[in-house]
């Protein structure tokens, strides 16, 4: 068996221990004679899996009791619609547009009400986070929306926007569980799990209870009504059982690693290795304003499309996979999520230094 260093932005690297454990349990989950994939979601066995997963997530993130945790389907993208459908009482919300995912959420919200662009970094290819200290937020807005870590462009909100008392809704797909957060600063935190937690398809919503409406916008599908999902413990229909089971294993792994403060230190250490190299290199350079750099997604370029392509191909041959940048940005991007070991980043930097020598 050969495992590569996988720098994919998502679906992305998972802890090897978790995959091994899932493999060991594939045919016979803890003596019950069947796979988790085959068991009823109403069984005692599965109830233990989802209950433990939720409890572990609450413990890791310090989720207060007045927040619901939902395990839903449809990925982060279905929540782009669910957010306005559940929260747009006044049919008006403010969006901070810092990349493709925020742009998509903004466009989706426009289908259901008045979505206002409060700030944007589109003028410089989303390479920075705009000043959000005094945004044109009006009293009739139902919420303020951000994408906290911009997976494609490699920027991160290191300071949350001043929402002037409005509820903050954050898509944290690509920084989920990469560091501790103060959940009470958000009305809704949600993310697709395939970046840092588990298999694609599952999305986790953490929602302050009083924001879960009795009634959504007319025509909201039952499955997208947060109240229905909350009242049914994420089991209004068959949940993505196997995906939730893997998420649960990742939560256990994170606890074993020492929790989110330890993960943050590890992530800072890994990112520093790569950013320090980029800052000292004569060939490669990072594309993001230094103060807004993400710890998870690191885009970089050589300045030549030809050299970029050569780099990606040669890196792949050396066991460093999925370094090609997003199709809308070009260049390279190294995603270094929780499960990427420090050795992987060190190997990447070594390879980059060697490539630089040979291609000067
Ligand atoms: C990947 C990603 C999405 C889309 O997730 P899906 O599960 O494919 O819908 C949304 N937001 C961010 C920040 C992402 O990184």
Would you mind describing this structure in some detail?
With 360 residues, the chain is α/β, with parallel strands linked by helices. It has two domains: 16-257, 3-Layer(aba) Sandwich (Aspartate Aminotransferase, domain 2); 259-358, Alpha-Beta Complex (Aspartate Aminotransferase, domain 1), CATH 3.90.1150.10. The protein is 34% helix and 17% strand. The chain has helices spanning 16-24, 44-61, 75-87, 100-109, 226-231, 241-257, 260-280, 305-317, 342-358, and strands spanning 5-6, 67-73, 92-97, 114-120, 143-147, 149-150, 155-156, 167-171, 188-192, 202-208, 285-286, 297-301, 320-321, 332-335. The strands form four sheets. Strands 2-10-9-8-5-3-4 form a seven-stranded mixed sheet. Strand 3, helix 4 and strand 4 (114-120) form a beta-alpha-beta unit. The chain is globular and about 65 Å long. The mean pLDDT is 97.
